[in-house]
């Protein structure tokens, strides 16, 4: 698939100006460095994790630096130095620091001739680029109404790059289409409401002949294309917004991990998951969640001793169900943080940016809290 390079560059330069509902104080990480030299391959998240307990709050370190309006103007080779202004930690790039105790020296304007595409991105674009124009969550009925792949010029049942496929609709000449395979159907676990149908991009192509049965020549393939797959125009609204503002999630009820994109049992750092909230719930690209799993319910037996779930008898379970005094809910367990990067009506895609424990389906997603008290 062809993705305009300008869009990719914009995505790589996503602005990381955050707003917070928590206290203004930034908590520095124990053992943090006093300075840091930016390396090729670094991301804003990587650098922030070296200084702060809460990496996603790192852009606030630049608030008093007028020379650098946005963190995306950091490049490999830049040296960052930690200073304190009014008692608050700030990061400045060497050459931009101002010391009020020293005489002011006027310097002629200087510049660096560096390609903008070399700026340090918010997160590693390679991790999510694959998903920017691929998997979608759409209404099941809507997907079934989209034009369908009937067959191809090749006698094979599986079609790849260079093959021409037949579509049961009159399509505009030269229009680019994505060819989608039907994936999993998602439901809200609590209400049973249908959330949507996963549509997995198999290939992309361009209309080379229009008619009652149109022809599409496949330009890229992510998996083999088959009869029965559906086609949808490749439009700009399927791309993630070029800029977003990271901020803590604000939902009336917690979101949950709906599914793991890779279909594995557990997900870890840098894996992608679906969550059960979307634009209808106020979720947007850049929202940050903390991931938690429900704490265990401990039952007190007849001897007054706590019994974990793995050791409970049927009698213990019965007594716990009829007496709240016999069942004690343990605190939820923190598992990591997630950054939403693509949003649909009732679902979203998120990148797991940090983990303490593996993430599973049905884990809870709530507003992030400081980890300072956790000793991190």
Automatic annotation (TrEMBL):
It comes from Shewanella baltica (strain OS155 / ATCC BAA-1091). It comes from the Bacteria. The keyword Isomerase does not apply. This is Peptidoglycan-binding LysM. CDD domains: LysM. Residues 1-22 form the signal peptide. Residues 34-82 form the LysM domain. SMART domains: LysM. Keywords: Signal. Pfam families: LysM. SUPFAM superfamilies: LysM domain.
């Amino acid at each position: 698939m062809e993705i305009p390079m300008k869009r990719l560059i914009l995505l790589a330069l996503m602005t990381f100006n955050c707003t917070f509902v928590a206290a203004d104080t930034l908590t520095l990480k124990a053992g943090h460095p006093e300075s840091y030299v930016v390396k090729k391959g670094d991301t804003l998240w990587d650098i922030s994790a070296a200084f702060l307990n809460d990496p996603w709050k790192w852009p606030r370190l630049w608030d008093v630096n007028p020379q650098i309006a946005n963190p995306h103007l950091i490049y490999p080779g830049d040296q960052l130095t930690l200073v304190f202004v009014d008692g608050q930690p700030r990061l400045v790039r060497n050459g931009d620091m101002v010391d009020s105790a020293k005489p002011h020296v006027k310097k002629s304007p200087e510049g660096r001739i560096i390609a903008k595409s070399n700026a340090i991105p918010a997160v590693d674009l390679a991790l999510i680029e694959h998903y920017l124009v691929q998997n979608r969550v759409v209404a099941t009925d809507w997907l079934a109404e989209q034009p369908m792949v009937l067959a191809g010029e090749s006698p094979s049942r599986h079609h790849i790059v260079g093959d021409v496929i037949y579509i049961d609709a009159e399509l505009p000449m030269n229009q680019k289409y994505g060819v989608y395979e039907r994936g999993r159907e998602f439901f809200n676990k609590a209400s049973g409401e249908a959330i949507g149908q996963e549509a997995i991009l198999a290939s992309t192509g361009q209309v080379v002949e229009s008619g009652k049965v149109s022809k599409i020549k496949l330009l890229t393939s992510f998996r083999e294309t088959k009869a029965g797959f559906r086609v949808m125009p490749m439009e700009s609204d399927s791309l993630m917004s070029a800029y977003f503002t990271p901020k803590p999630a604000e939902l009336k009820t917690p979101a949950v991990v709906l599914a793991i994109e890779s279909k594995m049992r557990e997900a870890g750092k840098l894996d992608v998951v679906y969550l059960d909230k979307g634009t209808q719930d106020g979720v947007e690209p850049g929202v940050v969640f903390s991931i938690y799993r429900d704490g265990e319910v401990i039952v007190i037996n007849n001897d007054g001793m706590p019994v974990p779930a793995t050791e409970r008898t049927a009698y213990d379970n019965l007594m716990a169900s009829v007496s709240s005094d016999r069942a004690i809910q343990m605190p939820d367990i923190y598992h990591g943080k997630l950054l939403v990067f693509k949003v649909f009506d009732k679902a979203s895609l998120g990148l797991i940016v940090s983990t303490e424990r593996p993430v599973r389906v049905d884990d809870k997603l709530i507003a992030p809290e400081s980890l300072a008290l956790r000793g991190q």
